[in-house]
Design a protein that fits this description.
The chain is α/β, with parallel strands linked by helices and 169 residues long. It contains six helices and four strands. A four-stranded parallel beta sheet has the order 2-1-3-4, sandwiched between helices.
Length: 169
């Protein structure tokens, strides 16, 4: 699947696992995702906006500043810091919903990555991911991104008049 000539702009929002704690930004899932998409022929630029120790409240506070105009997709990886720093499940859910609402109001597609991650993908601290964990997340995000691209291309085709349609006389 080839993307259009314009680059697909993706921003990954999250905390230390998005940022790449222990593996660095080049080992983190946003960089892995960009590489995997390019291998599939998708001209993608994935910006890593992960900030260690962030809770969903802090992510909500910076979402507008960290997601520039022209962004196509945001991957929101809310993580577990809300629980770690005594936040409630209800407040976490409300913050995630508000981030989604704000982004969709700007016509930005949102993928919330809040999947259960098997323990084998965690480092010794059982908080941060290994390189394999980041690779697993990136691989699981590829079909989600491709599905969004496919929907956008189908919507664009549906809006444009058919050039192959001829009227018989």
């Amino acid at each position: 699947m080839a993307a259009s000539a314009a680059s697909l702009r993706i921003v990954a929002i999250g905390a230390s696992n998005t940022q790449g704690w222990y593996v660095g930004k080049q080992g983190a899932y946003p960089a892995n995702l960009e590489s995997l998409l390019k291998a599939k022929g998708v001209n993608a630029q994935v910006t890593n906006a992960g900030v260690p120790f962030d809770t969903t409240a802090k992510m909500l506070g910076r979402i507008d500043a960290d997601v520039p105009n022209g962004t196509d997709i945001v991957i929101l990886q809310p993580g577990a810091n809300d629980r770690r720093f005594f936040g409630t499940k209800e407040r976490r859910a409300a913050n995630i919903a508000e981030m989604e609402r704000r982004l969709r109001a700007r016509a930005i597609k949102v993928i919330v990555y809040d999947d259960e991650i098997p323990l084998r993908y965690y480092a010794f601290d059982f908080i941060h991911l290994t390189r394999e964990g980041h690779a697993m997340i990136a691989a699981s995000l590829v079909p989600r991104v491709l599905a969004i691209i496919g929907r956008q291309q189908n919507d664009a085709r549906a809006r444009s008049p058919s050039r192959n349609h001829r009227v018989s006389e």
